[in-house]
Design goal:
With 387 residues, this protein is of the alpha+beta class. It has helices at residues 3-19, 98-147, 153-199, and strands spanning 36-39, 41-43, 46-61, 64-68, 73-78, 85-86, 91-95, 202-204, 209-214, 221-222, 227-233, 237-244, 256-261, 267-276, 286-292, 304-320, 325-327, 330-336, 342-346, 348-353, 356-361, 368-370, 382-385. It is elongated, with a radius of gyration of 48 Å. The two termini are 73 Å apart.
Length: 387
Amino acid sequence: MSKTSAFLTLLAVVWTFSGCGDKIEPGTTSDGITKTVKAQVAVADTGSKPFLYEAVGTVHARTSSTISGKLMGTVKAIHVRAGDSVKKGDVLIEIDGRQATAQLRKAEASLAEARRAMVSTQSARTAAKAASRLSKKTYGRYKLLLEEESVSRQEFEEVETKYRQAKASLSQADSMVEAAKYRIQQAQASLESAQISKKDTRVTAPYNGTVTAKMIDEGGLASPGTPFLTLEKDGVFCVSLVVPEKHIQSVSLGQKVNITIPSMQDMAVQGTVGSIDPAADLKSRSFTVKVALPDEEKFRTGIFARVAIPVGEAGMIVIPEKAVVERGQLQGFYLVDENDIAHFRLLRTGRLLGDSVEVLSGLQNNDRYVTNPSLDIQNGVKVEASK
């Protein structure tokens, strides 16, 4: 090899080594010191937590009534509309009461007539009693005279016949009095029925509530059983839900369960299981369960609800919701290694359990993590566990 070639080769090697060296820009010189941040650190633990079956249901009033007609007549006036609040005893609907008034007057007249007949029969019975007493005494005297042979047999038999007729007349008078009493009872019952019919011309609210539907208009013909209004009782609501047969054994009367109402800003309340259907639906193999809601809240019929029913226990890792870091559409947490260095790791979460969240993957048992990372916590910083 010539000297010129050797020189060029040496120059290329020097250039190569100088190009591979670390180039340190001004102001970025590493001093080898890692940033330290104080933070609370916890150890992941697989514990036994309640397994919750989340059932969906619908809110409705525990007491709901269809107000119907009890007599025939024309609807004279309707004093409420759907959505109106009413108090117990408020007049809701008025029905033309002319026919009921006529029946009431007829019943009053029948009762008065029955009472007059009673007075007449009582007078007849009094007269029959007097005649019976007199004939009895006469019969007794003639019986003694017959024994003494002071009267003939024919005269005695005539007195005896009158005595028996007097007894029969008294018995008949007693029967007439009893019949008169029965007619009075009938007339009183007819009068009470007429009074009720007259009262039924004014349909009133049976309790404090809200009118949810109106099914008849003024001028319409009402008859017994005709639905007028639907009324829901205030302050007593429940959630009706369906529970599959595999979980029904975990539900019992009086059990407390947590309820969430999404449409009411995710309102969380506690309800009580009030009823469980004794038989399952043959098609869905599920049971209808009703959960009573607190009376102090203002609910509405038909709104959606979620009910969390404990149906056993399962092993799971649960961490504070604040430990989860949102990165766009991803979720993660800061893992703290054995050298107290923080590392961002992706995380997949499950159900919310109060202020905590279930971990499905990404965090292992006995892993250390930052419970409430601040903005100072970054990937690679050193974490000093605070008390």
